[in-house]
Amino acid sequence: MKIGKTQSKIILLITLLTLFFTAILFFIKESEEKELTRILAEERATKQILIDNIFALVGKGLESWAFNDTYWDEMVTCVTNSDTKWGDEIVATALPTYNAHAAWLYKTNFTLAYSTNIVGDKELTEFPLPKQELVKMLTEKSFNYFFVNTKHGLLEVRTAPVQPSSDIARKTPPRGFFLVGRLWTPEYIRHFNLITSSSTSILFNDKNIPEEKKSSLYSIVINKPLFDHKGKTLATLSFAGNSEMLKESADALNWQLINGVMLTVGLLIAISLFLIRYVTAPLRKISRSLEHERSLFLTGLSKDKTEFGKIASMILEFFRQKEELTTEMKRRVKVEAELVKSSEELKELNATKDKFFSIIAHDLRGPFNGFLGLTEILAEDAATMDKKELLELSMQLHKTAKTQYRLLSDLLQWSRIQSGRMEFSPALYSLNELVEFIFDIQKTNAANKNISLNKEFDTSFKIFVDFEMMQVVMRNLISNAIKFTNFGGSITVKAKQTDRTYITITDTGVGIPQEVISKLFRIDMHHSTDGTNKEQGTGLGLILCKEIIERHSGKILVESSEGKGSSFTISIPLAPNP
Asked: 369 — phi, psi (to 5°)?
């Protein structure tokens, strides 16, 4: 009985171990299949990114042509004059370069100015959309990307407004519209097959489009919708392919599983209990913990008094130290990056200031040399000079001393702002009072050149500023306007308030070249030019103005054309609510 009972227990144990091991093997198989599914999902996501990148890349040439060649004076002339000769020489010859098949130029009244295509179809002389649809689309949005179905196949279209070369920012009204199209021919689609290793097709019927989520275990289906001019799906570009690597891996897994069952059932009878209880389970926990770098798997094992319990405790201590080390390393890397950034910013600031002070030293030396030369003449020849010559020399001395005083005054103001020693106390002040104060100071200089000083704003207009600082700004801007305005000109101060306060000083002077405007407010590109009456400037005034306006959380903008005067606009916040 005892032997029978023991045998029964052994048989039962073997049976249970066999069933247990078989269940484990199938669990592993299920997990591997889930892993294969996950890898397939990653492959699908990777292929989706690849297709999106390829799709963007192949369309980049068409987009580049439509965007870059439409702010061009010659194209504006072509649209305006319906210049077919220019179109044939420039637009038509560019079609093969951008792998395009057709192009159209429309005037702003949406009459056709020029068109060309390389498929020899007269029906493509006009753009293949109803005129009212075309007008609505381009009126609402100048830059468009969509597809049109033609008898030659699907047509990829890019549109852009035609504007002058000077309008790089695309702010002026369109002078016409440029449309360019590329036919998606079978040969063109075959390129997608080669690049993506997929079978690519264009489908127009929703019922024929394969679902991505219902594809087989080893197949990958990616659908790319193609939209019409209304943003609706016109067709679908479908990519279908198989993952042979995953299929081979699954077959190999099944074969290994069968062999494993056959080879290990016998061994389980003798050693399964010992290995599972004392070796396999602890090692699996340790392995999973190291693989996933998570201490959760070892919490229970670390309490065991066996060798595996001691190993688990050592690994937990290792994880703790590693986490502390990682945190410290991240902190040090962050601090180091901040130090490097601060060092680079400091070097750049020092270099800029060194260059600035070098320029200022030169500008200080120039008037002093002139002043010394004039005083030397006065000392040597004063006795022989008549009254007229002495008067002219005195005026030159006065002008040189005045220039030197302004330079030193502007430099002192700039230094006070940079060091934070200039108190900033904004309050509500009368703009009229401020402007009248500056006009009174500058009226002599303006009268010498017969320049009229004008105001175009209500006398009750209030601004929220630091009065002393804003005096410096208005003095510099109005003084500069007088300096660069010819005899008989005018200077006007305007103001308005919407979401912010805007103050504009406009003159009828000589204007500023476009290449100089970008240098006006930069300390590292100090710029100074004599006025229309040979008045000398410091070059610091506008830099000082910018510093003060930015202290007010505002901006200063310049609009100017050579020979047509200049406008300096100050934008500052409104007074805060009480």
From this structure: -60, -45
Q: Is the pLDDT of residue 562 over 50?
A: yes
**If you average pLDDT over every residue of the chain, what do you get?**
79
Q: Is 363 exposed, middle or buried (0-12, 13-18, 19+ CB in 10 A)?
A: buried
pLDDT-derived band of residue 4, with 50, 70 and 90 as boundaries?
very low
Distance CA 319, CA 296 (A): 11
- Per-residue b or e along 203-226, where b marks 16 or more CB atoms closer than 10 Å to that residue's CB: eeeeeebeebeebeebbbbbbbeb
Q: Which of 53-57, 177-181, 257-261, 518-522 has the lowest mean pLDDT?
A: 257-261
Cα torsion through 411, 417, 419, 425, rounded to 10: 150
The residue assigned the tokens 């702002």 is 417
**One-letter amino acid of 496:** K
DSSP letters of 59-86? HHHHHHHHHHTSB-HHHHHHHHHT-HHH
DSSP string, 536-549: ---S-HHHHHHHHH
Overall fold of domain 423-572: Heat Shock Protein 90 (3.30.565)
**What letter represents residue 36's amino acid?**
L
- Tell me how crowded residue 369 is: count the other CB atoms within 10 A of its CB: 11
362 pLDDT band, cuts 50/70/90, is very low
Q: Is pTM, for the whole model, over 0.70?
A: no
Strands (DSSP E) found in 163-218: 176-183, 199-203
CB contact set of 357 (below 8 Å; sequence gap of 6+): none
Distance in angstroms (rounded) separating the CA atoms of residues 288 and 238? 41
Rg (CA), the chain: 40
Distance separating alpha carbons of residues 73 and 75, to the nearest angstrom: 5
Distances (CA, A) of 310 to 3, 279, 290, 307, 324: 40, 14, 15, 5, 21
* Inter-CA distances, 571 with 289, 463, 500, 551, 553, Å: 62, 11, 7, 12, 9
Q: What angle, 0 to 180 degrees and rounded to 10, lies between the N-to-C axes of helices 467-483 and 431-448?
A: 30
Strands of 112-117's sheet in order across: 112-117, 102-106, 176-183, 153-162, 144-150
Average the pLDDT over each of 218-222, 231-235, 434-438 and give the range with the smallest value.
Answer: 218-222
Helices (H), 449-509: 467-483
> Distance from CA of residue 300 to its chain's centroid?
52
Q: Note the pLDDT tens digit of each residue in 77-122.
A: 999 999 999 999 999 999 999 999 999 999 999 999 999 999 988 8
Tell me how far apart the alpha carbons of residues 553 and 443 are, in angstroms, rounded to a whole number: 30
What six digits make up the tokens of 86? 């220019």
Going by DSSP bridges, is the β-strand pair 462-465/501-507 parallel, antiparallel, or unpaired? unpaired
Q: In terms of C-beta density within 10 A (0-12 exposed, 13-18 middle, 19 or more buried), how is residue 440 classed?
A: exposed
For the chain, domain boundaries? 2-57+245-292, 423-572
